[in-house]
Amino acid sequence: MTKLCCLIVIILCILHVSNCGRLTGNCLASNGTCGRKGFTCDDAFGKGWIDEGQCCSGRPCCKYLGVTNYRCGFETVAPCVFEDSSLDDFDWSRKTGFTDTRGTGPSAAAEGRYYIFTEAGNFYFPDTLMVIGAKAILTTEATNLQACPYCLSFKYHMRGVAIGSLEVFAGDKTSSLTSFWKKIGPQTQDPVIWDTGTIDIPQFSNLVITIVGSIGDGEGGDIAIDDIFLQASACNAGK
């Protein structure tokens, strides 16, 4: 009978433990990381965790509830999950239609009317010296993202003779971030067609994601992004 009870406990752990809505078969610690069966959950679950059955050691298994997805379309000036960083060299600018420099930037937003872009020509920031490598940074730092794997997708437009780079970093807020995606130089000569970036972001306990646009060598380097979608799931990015 004792062996049977232990078996039932283990089965409950396998069935009920969940990582951001996906069954994993693992037990979950309060720091937001999943461990192998037998790695016990502890009592300090934190916001969003609930007891669900018994874990392998007799302590609770956990299931994550209330996972939030985020979208930024820039149709209003209201802040979204990605906000301008206070640590960058200049800010992203909101725009509709062409940018102010000929031969660079999109002709219209990817979705709706508005998009944001890095102004390489000093039109919006006359007091800022736009040197090569100057950075405009969007960050999720102000949002406490749940400890989940995420799929990040967005539209981007990189047209012009002096395009710099567009890069996505992610990691734990308390440590250095890792680059997960990067494009350098012009990616299109068409002002109408936008490209799509799709990136798998693995699980971190204190996740922060940044999107960094860097200035190239000259005014013809406006980089635009639009329709950012951050979803709590893996997306198996292929590009």
From TrEMBL:
Matching entries from Gene3D superfamilies are given as: 2.60.120.200
Matching Pfam families: MAM
* Leader sequence residues: 1-20
For this UniProt record, the keywords arranged alphabetically read as follows: Signal
Q: Which PROSITE patterns match?
A: MAM_2
Give the MAM domain ranges.
70-237
| One GO CC term on file | membrane
Top-level taxonomic group: Eukaryota
**By its UniProt entry, which InterPro entries does this protein fall under?**
ConA-like_dom_sf, MAM_dom, MAM_domain-containing
Its protein name is MAM domain-containing protein
Q: Which organism is it from?
A: Mytilus coruscus (Sea mussel)
